[in-house]
Design a protein that fits this description.
Chain lengths: ~325, ~325
């Protein structure tokens, strides 16, 4: 397939880098600073090098990406809340012109799910968004295969930064600020880690899950969210004395979304360590399916984008 | 879709039972004793009741199933080795007449994989076989989404009976024969548990995985297999003193298949308990994906069959 990739962060760059290995061609690559277009396939190496050098990825205006001939828009621009712009309009434009869209950007499917499904229904294109939940872990495709109606709840650890911090606090008996600084040094937490540690990132993923289970009806403001910033090291010590630990757990059902720190048995399946994520999918006929893996990272998330492209209906 | 279900054991019965919930119609149901056919959809309740009463599921000759008009053959007859008959010929017949085939029977894809793929290539029908590996756990679909080329190895616990026995031996300090008897009482082990405890069942699943990774080339005789029948209770005690336990682990790579008891850390992800199965899929770009769930059972395996039907190309 011919890919138009919008967004040149870790995910967009990795999709561009891996595309040919999966048999696809990148005909356009853009971010807010510029675009590079080539119907014969762009020079990916040079484009990525420009990005590494701090230059614009291309000299064309960003919007020219939409004028290219392509099969799939990969929307990997940063997640925004509320109106979810400019991501929402990117998706709208592609669907309205009968292109497929594969999202890594959580905003549109968390905040304006029903509108997107309506646009998709009127389009010859298909919308997929595995990469918005759980990085490399196949979550939405598993739910799709079970059929959403057969899934009663989805629960899990969906933010690796918060999980890494809690794992280290428990392992080393250190307090939150200390471990956060360590995580930032390691690149596991961003300079502004707010969305990871306050539960927003996990909540957005759970809102997306609730929208899939209920076929819409939820947005970020519906989620009940608590983060990990106020957990003292002593809480983890106390938990350990009782054979438990603390994890930031998100839960999505047709009734709503809850994210918050929870006590879990120390060695339970749910207590994955470090930056790993885990999703427990409760089903009517197939019991409880647990999928765990790397929930974040450029290449990991890109692999979910490429899996989605693989599952698009053929042209 | 219209389903023709061949095999009326736990899996065949469960597929028949759940079909309408997933929007499908059962137009034929048969086993070696008889068939019931109805283009308008068979009376599933009555057919299953006849089976429960010990009667043939229908009064027609079994082969009449192939004369019915149907979209998908669900082949759920008992797994056989070597020539994998009569299952192989069932699949051949359906593919040669341009029908889709969804397998729960491991024999054909373990023993004659390349022949099946050749038949599929010449057919308008598609062959899928998620239910042959890991019951309810999405394994083959995960590999398919990653693309097999991006998967380097698959490892895991793929037989719930053996895993249950080892879990109980470790938990209770009992020996193998005692726990095997308990497992048979609970219906977790069959009257003839050979394939479960000697590693054959796990090996067949790993052979199927190796065939998927390497696009053929393996059959059961290529597998190196050891079972759990010779593990003394003392071995598990010794392991526990070192913080380890013993699990029957299967591994499939492009180079071959190995199944045997292994020491694993007591609380490692790999050490699932009871009848649960777990699969670790090692990928080039997405790290290590762990999928666990219920690896056996009529309804659980039926859910994998129905997920496969969901993924068939539309007519």
């Amino acid at each position: 397939m011919q890919l138009a990739i919008l967004g040149c962060g870790a995910v967009g760059q990795s999709v561009a880098d891996l595309a040919s290995e999966y048999g696809h061609e990148v005909v356009a690559l853009a971010d807010s600073n510029g675009a590079t277009i080539d119907p014969a396939g762009i020079d990916i190496g040079s484009a990525l090098q420009r990005k590494i050098d701090g230059d614009a990825v291309g000299s064309e205006a960003p919007e020219t990406l939409f004028e290219a001939e392509y099969d799939v828009l990969v929307e990997a621009t940063p997640t925004t809340l509320d109106s979810a712009e400019p991501g929402f309009t990117h998706v709208k434009r592609a669907l309205e012109t009968n292109h497929h869209v594969v999202l890594a950007n959580k905003g549109p499917v968390a905040e304006r799910y029903e509108e997107l499904r309506a646009l998709e229904a009127d389009s010859a294109g298909t919308l997929r968004f595995e990469a918005t939940v759980g990085g490399a872990i196949p979550v939405l495709s598993t739910i799709e295969d079970c059929t959403p109606q057969a899934v009663t709840a989805v629960r899990g650890i969906l933010n690796g930064t918060a999980n890494f911090i809690l794992t280290r606090m428990a392992a080393e008996g250190l307090d939150y600020e200390h471990v956060l600084a360590e995580a930032q040094d390691l690149g596991v937490a961003e300079a502004d880690p707010a969305f990871d540690v306050d539960g927003t990132d996990a909540a957005l993923k759970c809102v997306i899950l609730a929208n899939v289970l209920a076929d819409g009806g939820f947005s970020f403001e519906d989620a009940q969210v608590r983060g990990i910033e106020d957990i003292p090291g002593s809480a983890l010590k106390l938990a350990a004395e009782d054979g438990r630990t603390i994890r930031l757990i998100g839960e999505a059902t047709r009734d709503g979304v809850h994210v918050g720190p929870r006590l879990v048995p120390e060695h339970s399946t749910l207590a994955v360590t470090g930056t790993r994520n885990i999703v427990q999918i409760e089903t009517k006929h197939a019991g409880s399916l647990h999928n765990s893996g790397l929930g974040a990272g450029g290449r990991e998330t890109a692999s979910a984008v490429l899996a989605d492209i693989n599952r698009l209906p053929p042209n």
